[in-house]
Amino acid sequence: MDFEYFAQLFLGGLTRGSIYALIALGYTMVYGIIELINFAHGEIYMIGAFTGLIIASVLTMAGFPTLAVVILAGMAAIIYSCAYGFTMEKIAYKPLRNAPRLSALISAIGMSLFLQNYVLLAQTSDFLPFPSLIPDFEFWEPYAHILTSPELVIIITTVVVMILLTFLIKFTKIGKAMRATSQDKMMAALLGINVDRVISVTFIVGSATAAIGGILIASHIGQINFYMGFIAGIKAFVAAVLGGIGSIPGAVLGALVLGWTESFFTGYISSDYEDVFAFLFLVVILIFRPSGILGRAETKKV
Amino acid sequence: MTAKDEIKKSFLASLWFMFLTFPLMVIKVNTVTDKVEWRWHNMALVGIGAFVLSMLWRYLLKRQADGSKKEKRQGPGTIQTLLQDKRVTLPGIIVLGAFTLLFPHIFSMYQTNIMISALIYVMLGLGLNIVIGLAGLLDLGYVAFFAVGAYSYALLNLHYGLVFWIALPLGGLLAALFGILLGYPVLRLRGDYLAIVTLGFGEIIRLVLENWNEFSFGPSGISNIPKPGLPGMDLSLEGSTIFIFYIIVALVIFTIFVINRLENSRIGRAWIALKDDEIACQAMGINKAKTKLRAFALGATWAGMGGVVFAAKTTFINPASFTIWESVIILCTVVLGGMGSIAGVMSGALLLILLPEYLRDFGQFRMITFGTVLVLMMVFRPGGIIENVRKTYKFEKK
Q1: What 3-state DSSP class applies to B222?
Q2: What's the CA dihedral at B371, A109, B296, B196 to 10 degrees?
Q3: E strands, chain A, where?
Q4: How far apart are CA B15 and CA A94, in angstroms?
């Protein structure tokens, strides 16, 4: 077996998995708290990438230095994604808090359709070239044939985001409130936690990680269009389910497993059926282990 | 809350939306020529629009809250009472029937063609209604069965020269088989998992059709699919369109008949019970697995037959006709019309398919409207236009 090829596939899978992980976190956090599959989460990721591109282009044309462009565009993308996530929750999900779950899910699908077409109409249906925001580092040159510098940045960013998120959830007050709300909404409210606010914060945090993922992948692939969120969203969802939806380490683990399997599958077998493979994987997992790798089996009281 | 507060809140909402839509609506970057287009007029539009909509939104939510505080509406609404009144329905059905029969002779072929597609959607909507409205299983891959039907006619005709009349039941049967095939592994899944898996299944079918060139001729599709005919019948283009129109009308009537009978049958009541409470249902001795599989299979059958008619009507099919968004449109017709109600689903399908056809200028807003409809219907009128009335029994004290 060619070791270098293997290493390439392994690290490629790691990069892919990191991106999926960033998006999957939003799914899993929202699901953990209000038990809703936020179908429009992939669209938030797409909006993050679009906002990043627009702001970056405007700033570049205005003559800002590259570093400032990267930071400002990144911040704008995160802020706008958070704003969209927040507004989306208020419009499409909050009025349905006590409705049957099917209603909220249909509303989420509607939101996804709306946001996709909103970007299509407001911007364009073509693929837009995305500038490569991450430069090639000189010190990384000797290893660049296995793992490019942008890929390195993606992996490092993901690790940093994970650590920050873990910190947020484990050690801060709002993190504690989040965990309490996900366990029992009613009890949390009785103990003085503002459940609405916790849900809003969850949506904002999830959107922020999605936006980071959006910019990273857009600058890695080099082009974006209004449809990019859909398939990425589905795959991130697969990752979240794989690891056990509702569990944050599970989402990361699931994303990495999915990234690797996809990478090895396309590398050694065939690239035509890449997406088919991801879906088949999901079906198989759900049949044999519906609660995911790290998820707990659900027991229902009558 | 006073009117002043309302206006203040709406004003804030309008400011918020102006901020929110700023980069996407106002700035447009041309990355080739490096020019930025500033579209400030969009911002003004968003501001005014958001203000008005926010007022409306708040008013409607308030009205809804007031409504639910009061006693729930007594008995069925006006439309339902009209629908149940024999004196109204009987002449109504006669007029509707006569209109349908004469439709292709009064209107042009173009109109007839549009009507055929709309009726195909009616059939699909009614089929999906079994799965969603009656059994409560959210199936987002419904279009896969439609594809199975269309491709089974196209391929069987291409390889074995099978005619439409044999392909029609065969397409339905094959789709039902696929329904069971899909249904079996997902039996244990709950609502939202089920949605994703069915969505995945729909995409798998489409991707396989797109990539497996030897089997399905890939993205270029299959053309020259013969239109239906009867032995000894030599049809012109117009004649065959009218013929297909009558076929689909007959099929829709057949569908309505079957679903109506199903709804009040043992199976139908089992579906509705299963939708409400699975555990209680199993305790009452209903076989959950069998009941769900029946829903999947029966729902898929209509999609399969619809697919055969679709292939015969367009004489050309390719995988691009069977994307996930097609499933979402069908879902939209069911949700808009009213889950579980036959009249509702029919009117929903006709409305959603015919309106965009006649409002061609708004063609680009079609999908965005569908999205909005889904959200708004769920928030304000989850029962749909024509709500399904369930049989209720009241215990009244003397």
Answers
A1: strand
A2: 150
A3: 128-129, 223-224
A4: 21
User: Which of B43, B190, B196, B373 has the highest number of chain A CBs within 10 A, making it the mutation to test binding with A?
Assistant: B196
B207 with A80: Cβ contact below 8 A? no
Residues B317/B311, Cβ–Cβ less than 8 Å: yes
Torsion of CA A242, A245, A251, A255, to 10 degrees: 30
The DSSP letter of residue A96 is G
Residues B52-84 pLDDT 10s: 888 888 888 777 777 665 545 545 566 666 666
Q: Please name the residue that has the structure tokens 């195909």.
A: B120
Tokens 């074995």 sit on residue: B160
Taking the C-alpha atoms of residue B1 and residue A293, their distance in angstroms, rounded to an integer, is 50
Query: Between B262 and A144, whose confidence is greater?
Result: B262
CA atoms within 13 A on the CB side of A96: 26
Among the listed residues A277, A243, A285, the one whose alpha carbon sits nearest the alpha carbon of residue A261: A277
* Alpha carbon separation from B245 to A94, B163, B167 (Å, rounded): 44, 18, 18
Q: How far apart are CA B156 and CA B153, in angstroms?
A: 5
DSSP letter (8 states) at residue A227 = T
Q: Which residues contact B316 (CB under 8 A, 6 or more apart)?
A: B221, B222, B223, B224, B225
Contacts B12 to A, Cβ<8 Å: none
Query: Can you give the pTM of this predicted structure?
Result: 0.84
Cβ–Cβ gap A111/B29 under 8 Å: no
- What ranges make up the beta strands (E) of B50-181? none
Q: Answer whether A37's CB lies under 8 Å from A237's CB.
A: yes
b/e sequence A135-148, b meaning 16+ C-beta within 10 Å:
eeeeeeeeeeeebb
Six-digit token pair at B267? Answer: 């199976």
The pair of structure tokens assigned to B84 is 């149940």
Give the residue from B158, B163, B128, B132 showing the smallest Cα distance to B146: B128
* Per-residue buried b or exposed e for B108-126, using 16+ beta carbons within 10 Å of the residue's own CB: eeeebbbbbbbbbbbbbbb
Three-class DSSP category at B372: helix
For residue A238, the chain B residues in CB contact (below 8 A) are 196, 200
The Cα B124–Cα A233 span in angstroms is 27
Question: Is B258 exposed, middle or buried (CB count within 10 Å of its CB: 0-12, 13-18, 19+)?
Answer: middle
Q: Which amino acid is at B320?
A: A
- Give the pLDDT of chain A (302 residues) as one tens digit per residue: 577 788 888 888 888 888 888 888 888 888 888 878 888 888 898 888 888 888 888 888 877 787 888 888 888 889 999 999 998 888 888 888 877 777 888 888 888 888 888 888 887 777 777 777 666 666 766 666 667 777 888 888 888 988 898 888 888 999 889 888 888 888 888 998 888 899 999 999 989 988 888 888 887 777 788 888 888 888 888 888 888 777 788 888 888 888 888 888 887 777 777 777 777 877 787 777 777 777 666 655 55
Residue with tokens 């007594």: B74
Of B27, B136, B191, the CB nearest to A54: B27
**E strands, chain B, in order:** 27-30, 35-38
Q: How far is CA B324 from CA A27, A301, B105, B159, B254, in A?
A: 20, 36, 35, 28, 27
Q: In the A/B pair of chains, how many CB contacts fall below 8 A?
A: 161
Q: What is the CA radius of gyration of chain B?
A: 24
